[in-house]
Design brief:
By secondary structure, the protein is α/β, with parallel strands linked by helices. The chain has a domain of about 160 residues: 3-Layer(aba) Sandwich (Rossmann fold). The chain is built from six helices and nine strands; from the N terminus they run ββαββααββαβαββα. The strands form two sheets. The protein has a seven-stranded mixed beta sheet with strand order 1-2-7-5-3-8-9, with helices on both faces. The chain has a two-stranded antiparallel ribbon with strand order 4-6. β1 and β2 form a beta hairpin. The longest helix has 13 residues. The radius of gyration is 17 Å and the shape is globular. The protein starts with about 25 loop residues before the first strand and ends in a 10-residue tail after the last helix. The N terminus and C terminus are likely disordered. InterPro entries: HAD-like_sf, HAD_sf.
């Protein structure tokens, strides 16, 4: 099922566009009996031109971030995309000729965090973005001219921390207003439920980093931490976090 096709009732389908023995499946959109798209990433990805295959030793700030997670029993680590993974904002779709600016605006702390968590191998990673692949169907847009949602998140990962990409097993791109406006799915509620389902995780094991306070509100009990800097995620967002949101365990 591709974003340019109308919504239907198809069950999950994985599309492998890679050649036999090649780098694996490209980004695939799945319908799993629900009105959204979920991206399943390839197990092996190429390093995009300009990317960095190697990485330095993890900083003391990054180590403190990992200790912060472990002290709270958090092992499903979820990041928003816009203003979090990158300082950029793709709106309803980023023209492809503007992608370099978005990728260059990556959060350095996000890149280090993703690589460090992937290296450790004991945390499960995900992306929860309100950039919905249905927006590819808007007038004047398409996958050939614009990039958004999990496609854009994957491009950023491939550019800056390709070794970590396979650890982001699920990327949910969903805007509840495009799917009937059910208030029970507002913010990142739907995203986190699908991620929990994918990993078989309890909500108390999950944390979401997001720049929108409204997207952190939930009744399920996962922890929300607000990204406060215009440059995107910072390790200090954790250290400055006060308490848990309503509903958190």
């Amino acid at each position: 099922v591709t974003p340019s096709q109308p919504l239907g009732t198809a069950m999950a389908e994985v599309v492998d566009d890679g050649p036999p023995g090649g780098p694996g499946a490209v980004l695939s959109y799945l319908r799993e009996g629900a009105p959204s798209y979920i991206a399943e990433v390839p197990t092996t990805v190429p390093v995009m031109e300009g990317g960095h295959g190697g990485h330095p030793a993890h900083s003391a700030r990054c180590q403190a971030f990992i200790e912060w997670l472990d002290a709270r029993g958090l092992d499903v680590i979820v990041f928003d995309m816009d203003r979090t993974m990158s300082r950029g904002h793709c709106g309803q779709g980023l023209p492809r000729d503007q992608i370099e600016g978005y990728l260059e605006g990556r959060s350095h702390d996000f890149v280090e965090a993703a690589q460090a968590l992937a290296d450790l191998g004991r945390h499960r990673l995900a992306v929860a973005t309100g950039s919905d692949p249905l927006e590819y169907q808007l007038p004047g847009q398409g996958m050939d001219t614009h990039i958004l949602g999990p496609d854009l998140a994957l491009a950023l990962l491939n550019r800056w921390c390709p070794e970590a990409t396979a650890k982001f097993e699920v990327m949910v791109g969903y805007d509840f207003e495009l799917h009937g406006g059910n208030v029970h799915d507002k913010g990142k509620r739907y995203h986190m439920r699908r991620i929990a389902e994918h990993y078989g995780a309890e909500f108390r094991q999950m944390v979401l980093f997001d720049d929108s306070q409204g997207c952190l509100e939930n009744e399920d009990g996962w922890l929300g931490v607000k990204v406060s800097d215009s440059l995107g995620f910072r390790f200090e967002d954790c250290f400055e976090h006060q308490g848990e949101l309503p509903g958190a365990q």
